[in-house]
């Protein structure tokens, strides 16, 4: 059974930093990432990382956010620097496992609030 445990959200002033963590267990994963959602809007990709350590970022966070994972790919992190008020959202950890009928899993979400 896949389990995802997120931590690290909170309140920060504009220009500040936060680090999100997501511990993943229960399977072997080929893709991990972070998405975010604000009320009334669709969930959007923030950053993803593959087993080969290829990364992909939303244009709005390039140069400010960094996604990393462990050698075992059992956790994923999002270092967020130079935060802006528009980064305020619920952030969700996402993983895709290599095998299984259901391959996509989401964390419970962690709130990030950036004050101006």
Structure, explained:
- This protein is mostly beta strands.
- The protein contains no helices and eleven strands.
- The chain has strands at 3-7, 10-13, 18-25, 29-37, 44-50, 55-57, 65-69, 75-80, 89-97, 104-106, 110-115.
- Strands 2, 4, 5, 6, 9, 10 and 11 form a seven-stranded mixed sheet that branches. Strands 1-3-8-7 form a four-stranded antiparallel sheet, with no helix packed on it.
- The chain is globular, with a radius of gyration of 14 Å.
Count of alpha and pi helical runs: 0
Tertiary shape: globular
What class do helices, strands and sheet pairing give? mainly beta
* Tally of strands: 11
Q: How many angstroms separate the termini? A: 41 Å
What Rg is obtained from the alpha carbons, in whole angstroms?
Answer: 14 Å
Question: Can you write the helix and strand succession as a string?
Answer: EEEEEEEEEEE
List keywords for this structure.
seven-stranded mixed sheet, 0% helix, 11 strands, 116 residues, mainly beta
Short recap of the structure:
This protein is an all-beta fold. Helices cover about 0% and strands about 55% of the residues. The chain is built from no helices and eleven strands.
Which secondary structure elements does this structure contain, and how are they paired or packed?
Elements: E1 3-7, E2 10-13, E3 18-25, E4 29-37, E5 44-50, E6 55-57, E7 65-69, E8 75-80, E9 89-97, E10 104-106, E11 110-115
Parallel strand pairs: 2-11
Antiparallel strand pairs: 1-3, 3-8, 4-5, 4-9, 5-6, 7-8, 9-10, 9-11
